[in-house]
Amino acid sequence: MTHIINCLVENQPGVLARIVGLISGRGYNIETLNVGPTADPTVSKMTIVVPGDAHIIEQVTHQLSKQINVIEVVNMTNRRHLNREIILVRVATTNYASRAEIVDLASLFMARVVAVQEDSVTIQMVGNQETVSDFLRLLTPFEIIDISRSGVIAVDREVIEHNGAK
Amino acid sequence: MKNKAATDKAAESAQPLKTGAQCVIDGLVAAGCDVLFGYPGGAVLDIFNCLYDAPFQFVLVRHEQGAVHMADGYARATGKPGCCLVTSGPGATNTVTGLATAYMDGIPLVCICGQVALNMIGNDAFQEADVMGITRPVTKHNFLVRDADELPGIIAQAFYIATTGKPGPVVIDLPKSVQKQKTAALPPEHVSMRAYHPDVVANPADIAKFAEMINHAARPLLYVGGGAINGDASEALAALAHKANIPVCTTLMALGVFSEDDPLALRMVGMHGSVAANYAVDHCDLLISAGARFDDRVTGKITAFASRAAIVHIDIDRSSIGKSVRTDLGVQGYVKPVLEAVLPLVKQAEHAEWIEQVDRWKTRFPFVYPGQDGVIMPQSVIEQIYAVSKGKAVITTDVGQHQMWATQYFRYTRPRNFISSGGLGTMGFGLPACIGAQFGRRDELVVCITGDGGVQMNFQELVVAVEHKLPIVVVIINNGFLGMVRQWQELFYSRRYSGVMLSQHNRAPNENIDDAPAYLPDFVKMAEAHGACACRVTKPEEVAPALAKAFESRKTWVIECIVSPEANVFPMIPPGAHVAEMINRTV
User: How far is A148 from chain B (nearest CA, A)?
Assistant: First the structure.
């Protein structure tokens, strides 16, 4: 199963390379990785989606926590949380029927058509991990020309105890 | 920002500003550095200019790898952080093996590397390398300094990171332009870091549970690793072992942390450890791991390791707990305070039956080796180093057969007296580490036990010992082979010796190299060319007198011992195997 790990890091050059190098160097995979600033300009948040069993995820979490620039590591999958991903997907339309079908499917997922060309439509879709993968599965009968995914981001829905410890 | 303001203010009031290079010297002095190992080059000329007036000793090595191993040997022998200084590009890349060695074994050192000027970084400048990228996986942390105002703080942080938590090497990548930049920044009075809080205090509930597990155990065993040496836990360990009568085995990294003369000592555990230690692991019902990390050379087949035991794992490094084996209780904390905290809660115990059992194994399976008439057995050389030095020598080793014999046939009674590359298994470590250890402990006898393979990997550093009149004694156990690889080829590859013959004194006559000397290389001539005293011994009765002469001379010595070519290290648990599959040929 995949786990969503949120990692607060000091916003310094080289920290991203350190985190990515650590995970790949120990033989773990990264499914998606998203990095962005937080309300505190000296802190960045990384959301890392890692596939693996509980033992692997525990190791990843401890190894990340050990890094000198890592402030906090939280395995979101073990907590009540919200996760979202945005995707942009361009699908080929060979005739009016398939265009209508695609638009219809998009509307079922509350996705928006953001561009229309003679030969294709581009859909923007936002959803949690499950919904995004459902949508992509239902798109498989059509010809996907291009797809861009933001990677998952997540926020906690539990009360976080800030005791300063990692 | 604060520092920037300080610089501006100092500039206004015309206070003398310091260069980044001077900040390096001052930072090293503040950290208590008394010897710096290094090698100059274009990108560190400013620091070398300041070194000219530095109040500590600078030691010019002959290869940057030697500098890191010397700093490492110094750190292992003294407990203080080692310091080294090298130039950019090849200077820095040459440190990588040394850094990885120190990282695997948790050894505190700070390595300062010159770097090309800030505006040249990324330009493929002369002697430029991405040192941050290259050293990141082999250091505990690394810094690229972009502004001299940050430098005093970074140096203080580097020593703080290197020496706290699980210790490790820290690299400071220091561009030439920053060395020249002037600053009024001062080092912080206290180092505190936002995201690094190494001093973990163990949870009292864990301590209570730990005590209860000891009190209920019938066959407890202490399995002690390098963390106990790093954490100065010898006394706390002895107190616990003696109070509850718990036998103690150690890893390679922890030899001497518990006196091997103690009746409770089972000596080293693992692939080439004692039979008693390995049997005890297999039979115990409580395994207390103190600062050890269940390396595969200790555990063998991981699923069968200590299969009858509950496992308690004490480690300052949280990521180490539960990494390799199932753990029934993980206690995060330094070994010493954890053992001290549990001691009053532990009841005195006899464990008579268990101790009796363990003693039977000890008596029945001592380390023994077959003899050969007129031929020096490698194991006997180690025994004689022990005898002639009265067990007082500080030993450093390279990696391979001689390293294992050095664990088996010398008895270690004090911590920091056995210095060896455990985790990484770095050949070429022994000689420079010996030099570093002697710099740290000037009045003691420091002996490098090495092989004809390992010693050739950093032989050039011998001249450093001669230059500084260090009375180190290098004992080369010369069997003409890369012995440990040959042993594996003998046991597991049908004796197909591939790429392991070093000298030619073992070769069949038709394989001899024409006109080359019998001993290739001639270590005696090599040593003498480096200015050291040297001799070659080929007969058993010559070994002890040669050692005695060298030990008494207080000069740099190389003693080459031509030993039985195909002696093996036993006992041996084959890699990935269970203790029941141990090979122990003693005749």
Answer: 29
Is B198 inside any structural domain?
no
Domain count along chain B: 3
Instruction: Please give the Cα distance from B360 to B367 (Å, whole number).
Output: 14
Catalytic residue status for B362: no
Contacts within 8 Å (CB) and 24+ apart, B161-166: B161/A68, B161/B193, B161/B196, B162/B81, B162/B108, B162/B109, B162/B110, B163/B81, B163/B108, B164/B198, B164/B199, B165/B196, B165/B198, B165/B199, B165/B316, B165/B317, B166/B106, B166/B140, B166/B227, B166/B230, B166/B315, B166/B316, B166/B317, B166/B320
Residue B23 falls inside a structural domain = yes
Are residues B461 and B327 part of one domain?
A: no
Domain extent at residue B385: 378-569
Contact at 8 Å (CB) between B69 and B98? yes
B181-192 residue pLDDT tens: 999 999 999 999
Domain boundary among B364, B387, B420: B364
Query: Do the beta carbons of residue B231 and residue B198 sit within 8 Å?
Result: no
| Distance separating alpha carbons of residues B108 and A111, to the nearest angstrom | 55
Residues B318 and B387 in one domain: no
Instruction: State which of B331, B364, B397 marks the end of a domain.
Output: B364
In a domain, B586, yes or no: no
Question: Do B143 and B11 share a structural domain?
Answer: yes
Pair B348, B396 in one domain: no
The distance of A25 to chain B (nearest Cα, Å) reads 8
Residues B22 and B154 in one domain: yes
B379 is catalytic: no
In which residue ranges of chain B is pLDDT below 70? 1-15, 587
Domains, chain A, in order of start with CATH, read: 2-78 (3.30.70.260), 82-153 (3.30.70.1150)
Contacts of A58 in chain B (CB under 8 A): 322
Instruction: Give the pLDDT of residue B10.
Output: 53
| pLDDT tens, residue by residue, B337-387 | 999 999 999 999 999 999 999 999 999 999 999 998 999 999 999 999 999
Contact B322 A13 (CB under 8 A): no
Partner A contacted by B140 (CB < 8 A): yes
Same-domain check for residues B102 and B216: no
Task: Flag if A68 and B133 touch (Cβ within 8 Å).
Answer: no
CATH number of the domain to which B552 belongs? 3.40.50.970
Residues of A in contact with B160 (CB under 8 A): none
What sign does the dihedral B516-B449-B574-B314 (CA atoms) show? negative
* Residue B176 falls in the annotated catalytic set: yes
Residues 48-87 of chain A with CB under 8 A from chain B are 55, 58-59, 62-63, 65-71
Q: What is the CATH number of the domain that holds B352?
A: 3.40.50.1220
Say how far apart CA B28 and CA B83 lie, in whole Å: 8
CA distance to partner chain B, nearest, from residue A33 (Å): 20
Query: Which of A11-15, A159-163, B174-178, B499-503 has the lowest average pLDDT?
Result: A159-163
Is A11 at the interface with chain B, CB within 8 A?
Answer: no
Per the confidence metrics, is the pTM higher than 0.90? yes
